[in-house]
Specification:
About 70% of the residues lie in helices and about 0% in strands. The chain contains 18 helices and two strands. Helix 8 (about 150-165) packs parallel to helix 15 (about 315-325).
């Protein structure tokens, strides 16, 4: 193994990927943890555990497999938590995180389950995710009633950046949002808390309704929207990783990190395209060093995670809502495209989308569960009619 330092493009690609992956959606993760009742200390612990898991597991796989394995937290999963889990106690949420991690490990370890998962209609899963994301994106414009100038400026920055530099759009929106807030003097005093990374364990509570309402949809949306696309990105770059190894590895990492508040660690998709491109390193055989540098940057982020949490908690609610809504627009576009991609499944996908987006809650089970159930029943009814 060469001891020479990585070339400059490897450093720059890894830095850009880490900043986009962290900065683009960290506001959503903080919001989700706070909705679940996590304290400032517990939120800082969750972010620290997420960054450590991304760094240590991604760096290990990159070094061992000699391919750029880029990990991330589950952004769709965080959106699901923030949208469907209000009122759930933090220990019960941690129990759901653990249950979802176990499901991911079992799925990766048993080939038959992997083949079964591959048959899950992505249209229905995407319909559920689109229904989860919709209220956040609508909330962006609802925030315009409280702060129309902020919303207008940040939407304008987003649209212009998407036209000129789409890769950096969310990062530019984040920078613009913080800058506008500071210029206007709207930043509240930082809440008390730690500056450097710390891990605070929580004794999980396992509640069947919480696991069905959050854990199962959370597992499914992370699998379909993060892990499977992440594998596709690696394959498109010419790598042939063992999918079971990566699925089990990320699942085990999530299992270890969950007691500290981490919701899920999984394969990255968008940021992975940066680290697997020719611009990151001209030699595909040496491109694994980009994954190592990316992991190193996440170690730095882990060190300062509590301070970053406190910064976001000092921002006005309208800023957080606006940043979150804009950050999820690209994800909503992608999920709606997938949701409507198969003409024969559109009715079931739309039913899933509407049921989830409605916020329906019955018998202690959230909208994501009922949306999935409605979609699968619609697909089953269609299959039954075909046989009659």
């Amino acid at each position: 193994m060469s001891l020479r330092p990585p070339p400059v493009p490897a450093w720059s690609a890894a830095l850009i990927a880490a900043l986009i992956g962290f900065g683009g959606t960290v506001a959503l993760v903080v919001q989700a943890m706070r909705v679940l009742g996590a304290s400032i200390e517990q939120t800082g612990s969750a972010l620290t555990a997420l960054c450590l898991g991304i760094a240590l597991t991604g760096g290990f796989f990159s070094l061992k497999l000699r391919i750029p394995v880029v990990l991330a937290w589950s952004t769709p999963g965080a959106a699901l938590l923030a949208a469907t889990a209000p009122g759930i106690a933090w220990p019960a949420a941690v129990g759901a995180f653990l249950a979802a991690a176990v499901m991911m490990v079992v799925l990766g370890a048993i080939p038959a389950l992997g083949r079964l998962a591959a048959r899950i209609p992505t249209t229905v899963a995407s319909g559920m995710l689109a229904g989860v994301l919709l209220p956040f994106c609508l909330g962006l414009f609802k925030a315009g009633a409280a702060d129309p100038l902020l919303v207008a400026l940040l939407v304008a920055v987003f649209l212009l950046a998407r036209q000129r530099v789409p890769l950096y759009a969310l990062l530019l929106v984040l920078a613009a949002g913080i800058a506008i807030t500071m210029v206007r003097g709207d930043v509240a005093p930082l809440p008390p808390g730690a500056t450097f990374g710390a891990l605070t364990p929580v004794i999980p509570a396992f509640d069947v309704r919480t696991i069905l309402s959050i854990g199962v949809p959370f597992f499914l949306v992370t699998l379909v929207s993060q892990n499977l696309p992440g594998l596709v990105v690696l394959q498109a770059a010419g790598y042939t990783p063992n999918a079971r190894t990566l699925i089990v590895g990320t699942g085990l990492t999530s299992l270890v990190a969950a007691p500290f508040g981490a919701h899920a660690i999984c394969l990255a998709a968008i940021t992975a395209t940066i680290c697997t491109s020719d611009d990151a390193h001209p030699d595909p055989r040496k491109r694994w060093v980009v994954g190592m540098v990316y992991a190193a940057f996440y170690l730095v982020l882990a060190l300062f995670s509590p301070a970053l949490v406190r910064l976001f908690l000092a921002l006005p609610e309208a800023v957080i809502v606006t940043l979150t809504g804009i950050a999820l627009i690209p994800a909503l576009i992608g999920t709606m495209e997938t949701m409507l991609s198969v003409k024969e499944d559109r009715d079931a996908a739309i039913v899933t989308f509407l049921a989830t987006g409605s916020g329906l809650a019955l018998f202690g089970l959230g909208a994501a569960f009922w949306g999935l159930l409605a979609g699968f029943l619609a697909l089953g009814g269609k299959a039954l009619l075909r046989r009659i």
